[in-house]
Amino acid sequence: MTLLSVRGLSAFYGSFQALFDVSLEAGEGETVAVIGANGAGKTTVLRTIAGVLPAPASAVRFDGAPVGGRSAHELVDRGVVLVPEGRRIFPSLSVEENLQVGAYRARSGRWTLARVYELFPVLGARRRQPGTNLSGGEQQMLAIGRGLMSNPRLLLVDEISLGLAPLVVQDLYRVVRTIAGEGTTTLVVDQNVSQILPLAQRVYCLRKGTVSLEGRPAELTRARIAAAYFGV
Amino acid sequence: MAWLDTILQGLLLGGLYALFATGLSLIFGVMRIVNLAHGDLSILAAFLAVVAVEALGWNPFLVLILVVPLMAAVGYALQMLVLNRLLGRGILPPILVTFGLSIIIQNALLETFSADSRRLNPGGIETASLSLGSGLAIGWFPFITLVVAVLILVGLQLVISRMSVGRAFRATSDDQETAELMGIDNRQLYGAAMALSLGIVAVAGVFLGIRTTFTFSSGPDRLLFAFEAVIIGGMGSLWGTLVGGALLGIAQTVGAKLSPGWGILTGHLVFLAVLLLRPHGLFARARRVA
Fold first, then answer.
1. pLDDT given for residue A212 in this prediction
2. pLDDT at residue B131, rounded to an integer
3. CA-to-CA distance for B193 and B198, rounded, in angstroms?
4. Residues B114, B107: Cα–Cα separation, whole Å
5. In the 8-state DSSP scheme, what is residue A19?
6. What was the pLDDT predicted at B285?
7. Strands of A16-27's sheet, edge to edge?
8. What is the DSSP string of B259-276?
């Protein structure tokens, strides 16, 4: 069953057009990868789905209902949560308080403070410290944990590996696998293709604001992905 | 001993200033906007208390249970119907709109209550004093004012540090867009902050009306002192606001003791000195950038 469907989405920053007629889908329980180079429009797609950027109502459908242009907090109520690019940890809140803010409008569900600490033991060990004292990788864990606290049906993660060490990225993907295993639909944006493809059921490659390739990772060759990614 | 007495009186006066400043500090801390009608809204609360006292025959302290919720409701409505429309348009529109609101409130008060000065009479406690021995005495009412100011600050601090809505205040103050991504409706939250702010300023207005006479035009002075207290203490720091109010009060009473006309001036000079030497105030919360 389709949980999220984006149809014919175009987006503008002033007179600059960032997205041209983008369509994508995520089935219930799937892990979807959105890949592409800098400036391809990946973040714009995610921010539109999450309600940060405006869109015609029918351009984004979630669980069958048109939700394009709804406010971000309303989408959290419906179960759509974005883990933003750059982590955006609240600097005046402790690790635990950051997680608690994630549960501000929590839907009922399985994710609790205890379970997030189980998933990321390092957060539990440092829960009284300011969130911004953590390393980059730990901050990404905190940002993902904060997103989980609302018990989302669809978790959007923007630039999951940006600026992080390869070992940390491996850890994060292990966690994404666990989250997906719980049945949460996840849509992950990454510029780094090698880690995300093995665990995605569906991949979209964006280039210059359009979908240049879509399919099941198993059916795509590296050459086709490279061609779609770089446009060569 | 006379000087100790002066400082003590100034400290107690500071309690009243801190009451005025707390609401202003809260609003700036959460929304980054300056409410120029803050002083006039406190005077509006004092006039509402006058009306309630005359209509019901209650003690002014008792009418707080009516005036505080009423002003909180005014704050919520003001934020939801007017100020939220100005969000995201820069710093100037809220300043202009609250400045206009200040003028409207003053003229509405003048029309309704004339230019006569008013006072709230709590029946003797405003002149009663408590002897501390060796010639020192403090007024019961200024003492109560300071205690109430401290209690309100402690309560507010608990709300901000412990409660879900307080975490939402801090998160929104840090990063409004990300707070929205966590499901926090910033418009509702700002409504709650303004309700809290005006509930507190209602207490300040009623206490002012018990301490001294006031007229329709007493608001701007209150705003100025509240501003000075906030800036001396440091923007966004609640305890700083209390210290700022106390320093301002002490400066004014010490100045007035040196020469009767110097009280207000000395307060302004201390404020200017802090602005020169510590532009962010004495207790500014360090704002780290993520």
1. 92
2. 83
3. 9
4. 10
5. E
6. 59
7. A16-27, A2-13, A60-62, A65-66
8. -GGGHHHHHHHHHHHHHH
Q: Phi and psi dihedrals of B100, rounded to 5?
A: -60, -40
pLDDT tens digits, one per residue of A183-213 = 899 999 998 888 889 899 999 999 999 999 9
Q: Are strands A202-207 and A210-215 parallel, antiparallel or unpaired?
A: antiparallel
Give residue B290's pLDDT: 28
Which residues of A are less than 8 Å from B182 in CB distance? Answer: 76, 101-102, 104-105, 146, 150
Residues of B in contact with A146 (CB under 8 A): 182
Beta strands in chain A (DSSP E): 2-13, 16-27, 31-36, 60-62, 65-66, 80-83, 154-157, 185-190, 202-207, 210-215
Measured between beta carbons, which residues in chain B are less than 8 angstroms from residue A130?
288
Please give the average per-residue pLDDT across B131-140, as a whole number.
83
Report ipTM (2 d.p.).
Answer: 0.91
Among A88, A92, A105, whose Cβ lies nearest the Cβ of B183? Answer: A105
Q: Indicate the pLDDT class of residue B127, thresholds 50, 70 and 90.
A: confident
Return the number of other C-beta atoms located less than 10 Å from residue B111's C-beta.
9
Determine the average pLDDT of the residues in B175-191.
94
Return the structure tokens found at A61. 């459908």
Q: What is the dihedral of CA B239, B245, B250, B251, to 10 degrees?
A: 120
Query: Using an 8 Å Cβ cutoff, are B10 and B246 in contact?
Result: yes
Asked if A129 and A91 count as a contact pair (C-beta separation under 8 A), the reply is no
In this prediction, residue B287 carries a pLDDT of 45
Which residues, other chains included, contact A115 with Cβ-Cβ below 8 Å and sequence gap of 6+?
none
pLDDT band at B289 (very low <50, low <70, confident <90, very high): very low
CB A9 within 8 A of CB A23: yes
A50 in contact with B, Cβ within 8 Å: yes
